[in-house]
TrEMBL record:
Pfam families, alphabetized: LytTR
Top-level taxon: Bacteria
TM segment ranges: none
Protein name as catalogued: DNA-binding protein
GO molecular function: DNA binding; phosphorelay response regulator activity
Lineage: Bacteria, Bacillati, Actinomycetota, Actinomycetes, Pseudonocardiales
Domain HTH LytTR-type: 369-475
Keywords: DNA-binding
Length: 475
C-alpha cells in the first residue's frame, strides 16, 4: 500500500520555504481581533474561520493554550479491523517520516478521536513538537486543542492545511501543518488521520496531494474489508429470509440497505431490480431509506449489540405515509464484531427504543452553520432549499439568501442533511425535497426542480438520480 505512494515532498521550491510570518501576517491580525471576541472582515479562509467559531463559541478552547492535553480515557475499537489498519498507517507514517527527516518535518497518525498514536520524522523537530505535547497519547481534536491539521481534518472533506496564525491556539503559531481524515466507507465517520507538520516555514503544495493519495490508498483497504463484511451480512439475510414472511431488510453499520426481501422492497418502494434485491455488496450501491430516525436507531442497536451479541430490540419507524410501524433489530456478528443488523418490520420484540431518559437535557434544534461576510449564520434545515458545490466550496440557497456553508465538500454536507429530507440529485446539487414546488421536464427528458417559483432557479437532476427523485416526489 505505502510503496505505491510517491515520496513526500514538504519543502517548496524556494530554499527554506516561505516564512510563517510573511505567509500569515494578515491572518495574525485577524486572529488577535477574533480571539478577543471581535469580528473579522477578511483575510481568513472560510474553513479556518468556521473552525475558529467552533473553537471559540462551541468548544471554548483557550486561545493561549501552548500544550495539548492528554487524551481522555481509553477508546474502544473505532472501525473495521482497526488494529490492522492502524498498523498499516504506522508503516505509512514511518516511510513518510524518512522522506521528511532532512526538511524539519514531523509525521503523525491519530485515531478517530484525534489521539496521537505515533510520530516520525526529523528528531530535532520531534523534540520541539513534544514540547507542545505533539506526541503519542495526547489529544489533538478541535474540542481539545483548537484548529489544527489533525482535529480540523475530521470536520471537513479532503485535506486541510493550517498555517501559522490559522491555528486557534497561539502556542502553535510557529507551525504549519496539513492533515486528512481516514474515513470508514460504510458509516462515513473518521477512524484515523495522518498529519504533516513543519516548524517555522510553510509546507509545499505537494503535501495535500500526497495526503489525498495516502488516504485513498488506506480507504481502498477499508473498502475491501467492507465487501467482506457485506458478504457476511448477505449470508445472514439469506438464512433469515426463509423463516420470515414479513418485510425483512439487512442493514450495514451505517443504516443503509444491503439486502431486502420482496415485501420490504415494496414497503420501501424500491424497484424490483434495485441492488438490494440481489445483495448490495458494494457500499456505493446501497440504498439509504427515507426514515429520519433510522440513523439514531441503528447507532443505538449497534451499541447494545456490541455488549451482547444475542441482543434484540425494537423501535417505531416512520416507514410509510400512514405513520410509524414497529421494527425489530437483531445484530449480525462476525468475529465478535457487529457488521450489520437484520430489521424485521411489523415485529416488536426485545428492548424498546426510548427517545429520552428521565432528567435528560432538552435537545437543541438542529442547525447548519453558514458564513456571510464576517458573521456566523445559524440555519434551520427547513430554511435551506438546496446546496450547490463549486469544487470543495458549498453554497446554500436559503430563505435568507445565498450563504457559504462552513463545512467544505458536498459529501460532508450531504451526511449532515440527509436525515432532514435532503437528497443528492446531481454530483453538484443537494436538494431539500420538502421545498420542491415545481418540476420541469426538458425537451430531451431532462428533469429540473424548482424550489421557489418566485426565483429563476432550476436545479438539474442527473439521469442517475432521476428515477429515485421521481419516486420520492411521486411524479
Amino acid at each position: 500500500m505505502a510503496g505505491l505512494l510517491p515520496p513526500l515532498e514538504i519543502t517548496s521550491g524556494t530554499p527554506g520555504g516561505e516564512s510563517l510570518t510573511t505567509a500569515t501576517s494578515s491572518v495574525a491580525q485577524a486572529w488577535e481581533t477574533f480571539a478577543t471576541g471581535g469580528d473579522v472582515t477578511s483575510d481568513v479562509r472560510p474553513d479556518i474561520l468556521a473552525s475558529w467559531y467552533r473553537c471559540r463559541d462551541q468548544y471554548e478552547v483557550d486561545p493561549a493554550l501552548d500544550v495539548a492535553p492528554p487524551a481522555p480515557g481509553h477508546h474502544d475499537d473505532q472501525g473495521p479491523d482497526s488494529d490492522v489498519l492502524f498498523t498499516q498507517l504506522g508503516g505509512l507514517g514511518a516511510l513518510a517520516g524518512r522522506d521528511v527527516e532532512l526538511d524539519g518535518g514531523v509525521v503523525a497518525v491519530t485515531d478517530g478521536t484525534g489521539r496521537i498514536l505515533g510520530t516520525w520524522g526529523d528528531p530535532s523537530a520531534r523534540r520541539r513538537a513534544e514540547m507542545s505535547n505533539m506526541a503519542p497519547w495526547s489529544s489533538w481534536s478541535e474540542q481539545c486543542t483548537g484548529t489544527n491539521g489533525m482535529g480540523t481534518s475530521f470536520e471537513v472533506s479532503g485535506p486541510v492545511t493550517v498555517t501559522g496564525a490559522e491555528h486557534w491556539c497561539e502556542g502553535f503559531h510557529q507551525w504549519a501543518c496539513a492533515g486528512i481524515a481516514i474515513r470508514d466507507v460504510v458509516t462515513g465517520s473518521a477512524i484515523a488521520s495522518i498529519n504533516i507538520s513543519r516548524w517555522g516555514a510553510t509546507l509545499s503544495g505537494h503535501v495535500p496531494v500526497w495526503l489525498q493519495k495516502a488516504a485513498t490508498s488506506v480507504e481502498q483497504e477499508i473498502h475491501r474489508r467492507a465487501l467482506g463484511e457485506a458478504t457476511q451480512v448477505v449470508n445472514a439475510f439469506t438464512q433469515e429470509r426463509t423463516d420470515s414472511s414479513g418485510p425483512l431488510v439487512a442493514l450495514d453499520r451505517g443504516g443503509q440497505v444491503v439486502a431486502a426481501n420482496d415485501a420490504a422492497m415494496s414497503l420501501l418502494r424500491l424497484p424490483a431490480d434495485a441492488p438490494a434485491s440481489r445483495g448490495a455488496v458494494d457500499p456505493a450501491e446501497r440504498y439509504r431509506p427515507d426514515i429520519p430516525e433510522l440513523a439514531e436507531v441503528v447507532r443505538w442497536a449497534a451499541t447494545r449489540a456490541a455488549q451482547d451479541p444475542q441482543w434484540s430490540g425494537y423501535a417505531q419507524l416512520g416507514v410509510s405515509a400512514e405513520g410509524a410501524m414497529p421494527a425489530t433489530l437483531r445484530p449480525i456478528v462476525d468475529a465478535n464484531r457487529v457488521v450489520g443488523l437484520l430489521c424485521a418490520f411489523g415485529l416488536q420484540e426485545g428492548e424498546p427504543h426510548g427517545r429520552a431518559g428521565e432528567g435528560s437535557a432538552v435537545p437543541m434544534p438542529p442547525r447548519v452553520i453558514g458564513i456571510r461576510n464576517d458573521r456566523l449564520v445559524l440555519l434551520a434545515p427547513s430554511e435551506i432549499r438546496y446546496a450547490e458545490a463549486d469544487r470543495n466550496t458549498v453554497w446554500l440557497s436559503t430563505d435568507r439568501g445565498r450563504i457559504l456553508a462552513a463545512t467544505r465538500g458536498l459529501d460532508h454536507v450531504d451526511r449532515s442533511l440527509t436525515r432532514h429530507g435532503f437528497r443528492r440529485v446531481h454530483r453538484r446539487f443537494l436538494v431539500n425535497l420538502r421545498r420542491v414546488a415545481e418540476v420541469e421536464r426538458g425537451t430531451k427528458g431532462e428533469l429540473f426542480l424548482i424550489t421557489d417559483p418566485r426565483v429563476p432557479e432550476l436545479v438539474p437532476v442527473s439521469r442517475r438520480h432521476a428515477p429515485e427523485v421521481r419516486r420520492l416526489l411521486g411524479v
